[in-house]
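Here is one chain, start to finish.
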Amino acid sequence: MAAPCFAGPPQLEFPLDCVLGETCFIDDYVDADPGEGQRDYSCGVKTRDGHRGTDFVLPRFDDMARGVDVLAAAPGRVDALRDGMADAAVTPDTRADIEGRECGNAVRVDHGDGWQTLYCHMRNGSITVDQGQVVKAGEPLGQVGLSGLSNVPHLHLTVLKDGNVTDPFRPKAGGCDIDPGNGMWRDAPDYDAAGLYTAGFATAVPDFDAVASGSARVQITTPDTPLVLYGFVHQARNGDRLGLSASGPEGEIFNETVVLKTPENRLYRAFGRKRPAGGWPEGAYRGYVTLSRDGRIIAVRHADIEVRR
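Its structure:
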């Protein structure tokens, strides 16, 4: 069977076996700013400087363990792949170990006429296709993982034309006031300007400046301090809900939902607990901050802290 060759750009299907807003969400888009700043295709802030793809994220680490298939976004032929890299969140100590392999376990599919799609950060040992294999749109390529330059389970999808990045949401030049329609998508995933800049733990309720600068974040504490989780939100709407939950060695320590009322463009909310009698057990604690609207997940951030004596 010959690989398809498109006369124009391939029309893309959703590349994950998940439900957008329920079991996955889109976090970062292609950076449309050619300079040192960053902006997404709608002139929002949901990207990072130099980001070359679209990130489809699983809400929690446990979701990766259950297995979520990465799907071919368009028919084509597998022309490159890599497997065997560990699923481990990158740290400053491990960053050099993945140099040149930042994409992690990956599959690249050729669609003809210079068009390719690249699927990064796949789960170790999950890739189900072979080099040279012809695939259909929607065919599983592997599963979402945490390999390469990643700190959360997600698929990073890059669309390439003759080796150059193309934003599938706005493949042609145009201002943000011009509706790009579906772009390269058969049915473009919805965009929302709202999101989370970050989440973190602190040992007291921080002030806004400390949250915005990052100085509020505490990564190691002692058993006798409070544990406070905060989320830094942008472009929220009245009625949006912010969930703050945390667990540790002995299970859940809190799970609180805050309804946002007449929010500012940038705001933070925090929730925490005083130390229990005898102090917090030593070990690792993880928090999740979830921004949702009308029951639909818009963004999730996680934070980690270690309790040591």
